Amino acid sequence: MKEAQPRTIFLKDYKKPPFLIDETVLHFDLSEQGATVKSRLSIRRNPDADTAPQDLYLDGVDLELAAIAIDGVELSGSGYELIAEGLRVIDVADNFLLECETRIKPHENTCLEGLYKSSSMFCTQCEAEGFRRITYYLDRPDVMSRFTTTIVADKNLYPILLSNGNQVERGDLDADRHFVTWEDPFRKPCYLFALVAGDLLNIDDEYTTMSGRKVALRMFVEPQNKDKCSHALNSLKASMKWDEEVYGREYDLDIFMIVAVDDFNMGAMENKGLNIFNSSCVLAKPDTATDATYQRIEAIVAHEYFHNWSGNRVTCRDWFQLSLKEGFTVFRDAEFSADMNSRTVKRIEDVNLLRTAQFAEDAGPMSHPVRPASFIEISNFYTLTIYEKGAEVVGMIYRLLGAELFRKGSDLYFERHDGQAVTTDDFVQAMQDASGKDLTQFKRWYDLAGTPVIAVDYEYDQDGQTFTLKLSQSCPSTAGDVVEKPFHIPFSFALLDNNGCNIPLIQDDDAVFANAPTELVLDFVKTEQIFTFQHIEKRPIPSLLRGFSAPVRIKNTYSRDELLFLMSNETDGFNRWDAGQKLAVEIIREVAESYAQGAELTVDQRLIEAYRGLLVSESIDKALLSKMLLLPTESYLIELSETANVDAIHHARNFVRDTVAKALKSELLKCYQDNLEAETAYSADFRSIAKRSLKNIALGLLLSIGDAEALTLAETQFATAENMTDESASLIALVNSDFIAPREAALETFYAKWKADPQVVEQWLSIQCGSVKSGSLEAVKRLMSHEAFDIKNPNKVRSVIGAFCNQNIVSFHNANGQGYAFLADNVIKLNKLNPQIASRLVTPLTRWKKFDEQRQALMQAQLKRILDEENLSKDVYEVVSKSIK
Ligand code: ARG
Ligand code: ZN
């Protein structure tokens, strides 16, 4: 018999906490055998509680209770009861001091939640519900407390002992042990608690805030990484300055610490004053980190820093409100990256992720609203919907209000709710109150899952000189929704004349022509809505949903010739890129169709000419060009399909790519040479990045058609590269080519050179496993017994299993079903070791609906096999049970 099914938690059942914890005093004794945690909690009844129970229920998981006392008196067995996932303290007073002593085993903790060991250090991850693995507590974000933390450990093994806030005391103890005490002056929920102990080096910097206070910035790393800190520290200073300038937000403690940890489930964590990062998201130097890594680090450092206001000073009332902090903070970090780099390119990258992965999530079995109504395991809801769609929702408010009113709204939000745990409704209310804009209908974005679809129809009347735009919206119904009411959609719009110039938009006949805007954000609020524009002298081309102003699917209304026109004339950079994507999608689909029918394959010459035009253009911005030369990915093409024929998509895309590369060989060679220039020193500014990117795209295209000249270029670049961007790009080009011997040689050389550097080894693994050429299932399985692999390290799991299943799509989806069985085997293995990683890894199997019947059956069979496992974690249970037909 299987154990009882895990419980579903509902937003509608939210109740205010019956008890509050004013003070939390923690004492950690760390040793190789385990850790002893003593807590002293000053607890009182919540005067505003919804209920007044006699007993106190505390959360606790995998804890050994050694002692418990109330107001200094040891509790007898009748005073408390150990229950599933917690502790019941029977019949408590209104005000009391609870003392507990618990024992935990950080060195056996493979789920990487709570307190665990990573290489030689102790560290913590408490969000969302990890604190309950440290001590018994009210582990919910609306219980905020002042923390004082003392850490005791061996002085030689753990010279550095860190926690949140300010260090207030330190000293030596007997037997080579020492202690440090930290005090955090800000009340916080326990998910923001952090502790680190290790033999770490610190790299220091300093920042002077807008009011003139000096803040110490201190990054802690293992000694071998001391030369990989400068980019993160520079990004941190830039973030601090940006948040002062753009949001008026100043940092509030005297010290800000960052720690790099090798074993980490996610990217990073915003613990108050002590951010903890996955090493791969914070460590960089030019010879080991690619441009993409440099940009990721800049974005994540900013993200975690920005949480100090959007997350820590104002936090979430409950986990259903997760997007309150995550959506807003992703919006903030995206704006920061846009300001630091190319705004258009940042938008292209974000929309690409949204349309490829979030849209797929929202069309799949785990589809949920930005504010979910229920969950089984909250860790499963750190999703693209909460983060990326959540950021789009905040972005739509920004577009509806404009920069100035949005800033008034954020000021009001921070002022009104500083020190509180609040809801997404509170956020929207502040925006509405500050701007005077009614956002009632807008709130539907938080409560409804699914991606709205917009159909566009338009008409030009030559005689009346009017242009009529008709928009209609619908949303594929998601479980539980009965009435379909329209969304409030900001629809950014312009009209282009045949020279590609914006035409003044006059909606009202009395409007003054000279003051007419040339771009509008239309309030699209009805199921069907008509907008009319006057005094349009010639037939224009409409520019729709500029900058991707809302997270919707829009049906293509353009002819191929119009798309070609837009590829060179759109005034909105995002739409210009998107026109190229739309054209390429159409053409690849046409080729895939022919492939599936066994017909002859041909590529519409217009696409080739369009790329030629881009390559020879003198005026186009290189950053934009580097994005326009990339064909839509296989994942995106699958997402756009009703039923995806993976083999046809793969072959068609390659055929189009190779046809373009052959036709444009000389232009690509010239592009390579033009962007080759010897560099003085590596710089990660976006212009240098764009040049390297163009050069390496050209190299990849030339190598994919087996060009001998390109092979020499790639081998030379590989041997002489002075930065990891160029080194790994040449390796990727070789790995994806048909030059088998050079490819194998390069992989071997690369590993021999970099095997001591885990961040580079991760790249080496994912390049191979993500490539159809080098990542056969057998090769991937062999890599799993390579010394470089470690199933307990999430980064390695992602680089091998994740890369194979998500990037090496034709191999994973091999009709023999072996890719599916391989994934299920590993999900089952990881379910015991690290449930969070297991449940993330299983995602590709949950997308079965997109594939043919045979594959659907094979995928379903593997999901059932997982569900039949004994002791399935809540994490895996929730995802798999919701994914089964
Ligand atoms: N708050 C962190 C961030 O977005 C992520 C924490 C993820 N934790 C988890 N259990 N999934 O920066
Ligand atoms: Zn975050």
From TrEMBL:
Domain Peptidase M1 alanyl aminopeptidase Ig-like fold: from-to ranges: 450-556
Tagged with keyword Hydrolase: yes
Annotated GO biological process: proteolysis
Co-factor(s): Zn(2+)
Superkingdom in the source lineage: Bacteria
UniProt KW keywords: Aminopeptidase, Hydrolase, Metal-binding, Metalloprotease, Protease, Zinc
SUPFAM superfamilies: Leukotriene A4 hydrolase N-terminal domain (SSF63737), Metalloproteases ('zincins'), catalytic domain (SSF55486)
InterPro entries the record matches: Aminopeptidase_N-like_N, Aminopeptidase_N-like_N_sf, PepN_Ig-like_sf, Peptidase_M1, Peptidase_M1_dom, Peptidase_M1_pepN, Peptidase_M1_pepN_C, Peptidase_M1_pepN_C_sf
Entry keyword annotation includes Protease: yes
GO MF entries: alanyl aminopeptidase activity; metallopeptidase activity; zinc ion binding
Protein name as it appears in the record: Aminopeptidase N
Protein species of origin: Alkalimarinus sediminis
